[in-house]
Specification:
Layout lengths: L2 H17 L24 E3 L1 H9 L3 H13 L4 E7 L3 E6 L3 H12 L13 E6 L3 H16 L3 E6 L5 H7 L5 E2 L26 H9 L21 H22 L13 H8 L1 H11 L2 H18 L13 H23 L9
Parallel strand pairs: 4-5, 5-6
Antiparallel strand pairs: 1-3, 2-3
Helix pairs in contact: 1-3, 2-3, 4-12, 5-10, 8-11, 8-12, 9-11, 10-11, 11-12
C-alpha cells in the first residue's frame, strides 16, 4: 500500500466510525500519513485521532481506539498501535520499500500527484518583483500537481529578462490604476540583488530554497560543485541514480522490487514522505518545503549509492536489484521535484 492509498484507507476508517455512530465529528478532507517520529513504530503514523478529538468531544486516545478497530481489518494493514497522546501507528503487509517501488512503476514521474482535478480554483497574484514572480510560478506548478486549476498574474508587465533567463511566465498582467485590481497574495521577502547572473537553475534555487519570510542569498555559492551546495547535492544525486542504472546494465542486471534491508531506511522514509510534502507545499504555497525535501532525499540516495552495485567478484543479488529499484525511484522524485521548481536535472554531472 502506498502513502496515498493509506491516507484514503484512514479516511474510510473515519467514515465507517462516523456512519456507525461511534464518532460524531466531520470527516476531514485529508488524513496525513508519514513515517513515525521518535517513540513511534510501524511503517506510517497519522494524527487523525488528535484532529478529531475536539470536534468529537472525546479524548484523543479514545478516538484512536475507535479508529484502530476500523483500520486493523483494512486490506494491506498488518497491525495498528497507539502511541503518545493518540497517534495511530500503522504496520503494512509486506515491504514498505516494495510498495513504494510498485507505486513508482505505476505512477512514474507523477508519483505524489493527485488523480484528476479536485475542483479547487486558485488565483496567484504577485507584485512586479523577481522573487515573487519565480515563487508564484513554482507554487502554481505544485498546486497543479495536486489537482488545482491555477491562474497567475503580475501587477505589472514582468521584466523580459525574467522570461529570457529564468523562464518566468504569467497568464496575465496589469498596470497600476487598472480597473478592479487583484489582491496580491504572493509576496515573499524581495531579492535585494539581481539573480539573473547566476543563470536559470542556480537563480531559481537561490530564490525558492529559503522560506518566503527569509532573505534569499544571491551568491556564486549556488554555482559551486561541492557538497556544501545543496543544489549540487540534489542534482548530483539524481545523476548518480542514472549512472547506477547504466552501470547495472553493463553488469547484466536490472532493478526489481524487493527487500532492501535496513541500510536503505532513510531513503524509504524520504520517498514515502514525498506525496505529503507535495500536499503540504501546495497547501501552504511554500516551494521551499519541496526544495528542502529534495535535499533530504538526495542525502539519503548518496548514503546508499555504494551498496547498490556488486563489489569485486560479487554476483548481483535480489538485494542489489531491490536497492537499484529504490535508487531509480529516488531519481524520479528528484527529477520531478526539480521540474516543479523549474530547474533542470541533468543525467550527467
Amino acid at each position: 500500500m502506498t502513502p496515498v492509498e493509506l491516507s484514503r484507507t484512514v479516511l474510510r476508517a473515519v467514515r465507517r466510525a462516523v456512519d456507525a455512530g461511534e464518532l460524531v465529528a466531520p470527516v476531514p478532507e485529508r488524513a496525513q500519513v508519514a513515517p513515525p517520529g521518535p517513540g513511534g513504530r510501524g511503517d506510517y503514523a497519522t494524527n487523525v485521532a488528535l484532529q478529531l478529538a475536539r470536534p468529537a468531544g472525546r479524548p484523543p486516545q479514545e478516538v484512536a481506539r475507535i479508529l484502530r478497530a476500523h483500520l486493523a481489518d483494512a486490506e494491506g494493514v498488518a497491525g495498528v498501535d497507539i502511541t503518545g497522546p493518540g497517534f495511530l501507528n500503522i504496520t503494512l503487509d509486506g515491504s514498505g520499500a516494495q510498495a513504494l517501488v510498485a507505486e513508482f512503476l505505476r505512477r512514474g514521474a507523477r508519483y505524489g500527484f493527485v488523480d484528476g482535478p479536485t475542483g479547487d480554483v486558485v488565483q496567484l497574484h504577485h507584485p512586479r518583483e523577481v522573487r515573487a514572480a519565480v515563487t508564484a510560478q513554482a507554487v502554481a506548478r505544485i498546486l497543479r500537481s495536486q489537482g488545482a486549476l491555477v491562474r497567475t498574474s503580475c501587477a505589472d508587465e514582468p521584466d523580459p529578462a525574467w522570461a529570457a533567463v529564468l523562464g518566468v511566465s504569467v497568464d496575465a498582467h496589469g498596470r497600476p490604476g487598472a480597473p478592479a485590481p487583484l489582491k496580491v497574495n504572493v509576496r515573499p521577502v524581495p531579492a535585494v540583488q539581481d539573480p539573473t547572473p547566476l543563470g536559470r537553475d542556480a537563480a531559481r534555487w537561490a530564490l525558492l530554497h529559503p522560506a518566503s519570510h527569509d532573505h534569499p542569498r544571491i551568491t556564486a555559492d549556488h554555482l559551486v560543485q561541492r557538497e556544501t551546495n545543496p543544489l549540487f547535492r540534489v542534482r548530483y544525486a539524481h545523476a548518480r541514480t542514472r549512472a547506477l542504472t547504466r552501470n547495472a546494465a553493463a553488469l547484466g542486471f536490472t532493478s526489481a522490487p524487493g527487500d532492501v534491508q535496513d541500510n536503505a531506511t532513510h531513503l524509504v522514509d524520504a520517498l514515502a514522505a514525498h506525496p505529503p510534502t507535495l500536499a503540504t507545499a501546495a497547501r501552504h504555497r511554500a516551494p521551499d518545503r519541496l526544495a528542502r525535501h529534495l535535499v533530504v532525499t538526495a542525502d539519503a540516495v548518496l548514503g546508499i549509492q555504494h551498496a547498490v552495485l556488486p563489489l569485486g567478484d560479487e554476483k548481483p543479488s535480489a538485494a542489489h536489484r531491490a536497492r537499484l529499484a529504490l535508487a531509480e525511484a529516488a531519481g524520479t522524485v528528484l527529477a520531478g521535484g526539480l521540474s516543479l521548481l523549474g530547474i533542470d536535472a541533468p543525467e550527467h554531472l
